[in-house]
Amino acid sequence: MLLALTRPVSPSIVECQLTHLARQPIELAGAVAEHAEYERRLAELGATVRRLPAAPSLPDAVFVEDTAVVVDELAVVTRPGAEARRPETTAVAEQLAEYRRIVPIEPPGTLDGGDVLVMDGEVYVGRSTRTNDSGIEQLRRALEPLGYRVTVIAVTRCLHLKAAVTRVAAGTLLVNPAWVASDAFTGYRRLTVDPAEPAAANALAIGGAILLPAQHLRTRARLEATGLAVIPVPMTELAKAEAGITCCSILLEVP
Is residue 160 flagged as an active site residue? Predict the structure, then answer.
C-alpha cells in the first residue's frame, strides 16, 4: 500500500520561512483549497492519505517532506535548517515509527528532506542554506551501509535540490539547468523545464502520472509531448510560501 502522509495548512502560514522569495499575502482559504485538491489527487492516483495532527503554531507544517527521508529500510528524521521548523518533526517521527526504524539527524547537523532526491539506489543530496555537511554525513552513515550511494550537489540558486530537479518517470528527471548542473545526473534521461517557468522542475510522479502546479503550462506541454501524463494541480497560494508540489507529502510503501 502506498501511504501519503500530509498535514493541514496552518492558519499561521502567512509567517512561513522564506529565502529566495519576497513575502506576499497568502490567502488562507485558497491555500487550504489547494491542499485539499492535492490530497484528492493523491488518493485518486492510488495513495492512502493519512493526515498528521494539525499544528496551528507552526507556519510551515504543511510542508512535511522536509521533516523526513524515507527509504524501504528506515526513516531518517531530519533536523531542519530553519530552527523554527524543528518542532515539526515530532509528530512525523511518531507516525513513521509505526512503519520504519527511525534514525534522527543530530546537532550540529541540519538536513531538509527537500534537499534529498532518492532514485533507486542513488541518493542525491543538496548542500544548501538548509542542509549542512554534518547533516549530509549523518545521512551518508545511515544509508551507505544499506547499499545506497550518496552524491552531494551544491545548491545555491534555489531553496532545495528538489526545486531544481525531480524524478518524473523511471530513469527520467525533470531539470532546471539554470539552477543545478544537469550533468551531475549522467545515466538518466533529462527533460528540461521551459526557461520561462524556472520553478516547474518540482513535480511529483505517482500512479503513472505526474502532478505539476497548474501555472506551469509550458513545461506541462513539454512533458506531454514526450508521452508523459500530467495532472495539473492548483498551487498559486502555496507557491507564495516557497513550496513545491513534492513538499506537501511523504510517500512510503507500507504493508
Answer: yes
* Structural domain boundaries, residue 236: 2-253
| Catalytic entry in 16, 35, 158, 160 | 160
pTM (2 d.p.): 0.97
Q: What number of helices (H) and strands (E) belong to the chain?
A: 5, 15
Virtual torsion, Cα 38, 44, 45, 48, nearest 10 deg: 80
Is 247 in the active site?
yes
Single out the catalytic residue among 16, 158, 247, 248. 247
**179: nearest Cα among 201, 194, 211:** 201
pLDDT digits 0-9 by tens, 169-196:
999 999 999 999 988 899 999 999 999 9
CATH number (domain holding residue 164): 3.75.10.10
